Amino acid sequence: MGLDWLSLVLGTGAGVAGLTAIGLCVYLGRHEAAEKHGREQARQAPLVAVALSVESSEVRLVITNFGVHPVRQVKLMDVRRRNGDPRESWRAAFRVPPAPTERDLLVSGATFRMALWLLDSAGQRLTQVADGPDLTYRIRFRAVGGRWWLLSEDSTRPAPVPLPRYPW
User: Fold this and answer.
1) Would the pTM count as exceeding 0.70?
2) 144 secondary structure, DSSP code
């Protein structure tokens, strides 16, 4: 009788240990699959689009996040005329309140509007700005997975960029 109880205890212990091992394998497999899915999503380019227009010498950009995940640290890096003087620059249009050129968070479905002035090589506002393909822009942002992306007028989708050392 003592041997039967010992067999029962040992058998039950082995069964519990076996079920625990199976459950742990299933959990680890699901966890690994979820991590892999997250890494794959982080590598995919976010769905961010830019619409650019010119109204009375003011350049207007509308950035829209069409993806399901938010993007962070959206920043206009540059905008200029394609065939303009390389010393030309830009600045945010003076408004009340001022038009920001960067945003910390752009959630899914949200838009970010900005208004800019192009400046000549002397720093004076350009009053004659052609619309459309004459303008170039570069916009940088960070996806949920932490990867940085660059969007320009030449690309239909954002391109991954090396992580900036000091992103400000």
Assistant:
1) no
2) T
Joined together, the tokens standing for residue 161 give 């960029």
- Whether the CB-CB separation of 116 and 93 falls below 8 Å is answered with yes
**pLDDT at 27 (0 to 100):** 58
Q: What distance in Å separates the CA atoms of residue 47 and residue 79, rounded to the nearest whole number?
A: 21
More confident residue, 65 or 43: 65
SS (H, E, C) 64-101: EECCCCCEEEEEEEEEEECCCCCCCEEEECCCCCCCCC
- How far apart CA 99 and CA 92 sit, in angstroms, is 6
Question: Cα separation of 30 and 36, whole Å?
Answer: 10
- The answer to whether 95 touches 115, Cβ cutoff 8 Å, is yes
What are the Cα distances from residue 142, in Å, to 45, 54, 72, 76, 85? 10, 27, 5, 13, 30
Give the pair of three-digit tokens for residue 29: 């497999």
Where does residue 135 rank: exposed (0-12), middle (13-18), buried (19+ CB within 10 A)? buried
In the chain, count H helices and then E strands.
Answer: 1, 9
